[in-house]
Structure prediction request, 349 residues.
Amino acid sequence: MEVPLCVLVTGGAGYIGSHTVLELLLDGYKTVVVDNLNNSSEIAIARVRQLAGDHAHNLSFYKMDIRDKPALEQLFASTKFDAVIHFAGLKAVGESVEKPLMYFDNNIIGTITLLEVMAAYGCNKLVFSSSATVYGWPKEVPCTEEFPLSAANPYGRTKLMIEDMCRDIFASNSDWKFILLRYFNPIGAHPSGLIGEDPHGIPNNLMPFIQQVAVGRQPALKVFGTDYSTKDGTGVRDYIHVVDLANGHIAALKKLFDPTIGCEVYNLGTGKGTSVLELVSAFEKASGKKIPLVKTGRRPGDAEIVYASTAKAERELNWKAEHGIEDMCRDQWIWACNNPYGYQTEKTQ
Ligand code: NAD
Ligand code: UFG
Prediction:
């Protein structure tokens, strides 16, 4: 019998991580999650186990900070990992502007620690969560992987620095294999409504905010900017269903075992642009709820139109997003109805 590959998933209790861990398990991988639960709940791991059914025995979870080098070393000493998918990181743009050192410590030191331990234990295959934020305000769309890169804030700088670190490490030793995935805007949830995004505090991103308005946790959505040169004046983004994104990681993981791969970067998006007002309207249709709007000025640092060229991922990863905005809104709403206060009950809020 073939021994299943064993994958370490850092940040696997989080939004994208939990969806990816489920797809890994369903695909037959042994999966070890490390997460410090800084922005997530162990309930997500229990729900993934529930959804994984017969595959649940292949999942182990350790509450661990990736900066805790002795703990990470102990884990690598006891388990042989074939590859690592690295989600662990802080991701709030505004917070990164307020607390840049916290972002450099968590995201950069965390990644360096992980890479050092991987090197020490002979694990040289990594999939990394980068972001479309590295394209800054793109001069044109769709964004291809060759576009010039920039960082508009400390969070974005950590993504760019980690991408550059991976390129430098590969240049120094071609035994390493890196796939850097630039996500566009993940939204939606697993269609079961059991796992989804559960932001702490007031959400920064559009879809979680719309969801909180729909369930009565926020009075109205502020539309940041109505004077952009777009179809209806509001910002345009490439929203991607989180389950499609999760499957993009399986495709990337398979590619890591292709002997020709070195250090490669892929966009994960749909290639379609959707405005704020279009997303609101699709969500209203899916939920039957009216989302009150307050039109305000532009949010500093926001780009006008960002969407992906998906050609490289389609060609080389043999992966393509399958779900449209309607599916994303439907699944977001199922998650919201089942978990209006996320993984916590209302009473504990
Ligand atoms: P998330 O916050 O839900 O998940 C990140 C997880 O990492 C959390 O569970 C958190 O507890 C954990 N974590 C953070 N620091 C850690 C540390 N030092 N040690 C151990 N665990 C730690 O976020 P997400 O939306 O699932 O994003 C996952 C990754 O994808 C992040 O790196 C993020 O920057 C990147 N990304 C996200 C988006 C997005 O819009 N959601 C877009 C582009 C890139
Ligand atoms: N928006 C509103 N009101 C809100 C929140 C957002 O009108 O309350 C608008 C924004 O102005 C933008 C669009 O909705 O036009 C999407 O905004 P998000 O904050 O949801 O997403 P961004 O594209 O600005 O940024 C997100 C992450 C970044 C990441 C990027 C690409 O916050 O870290 O997606 O992955 F880099």
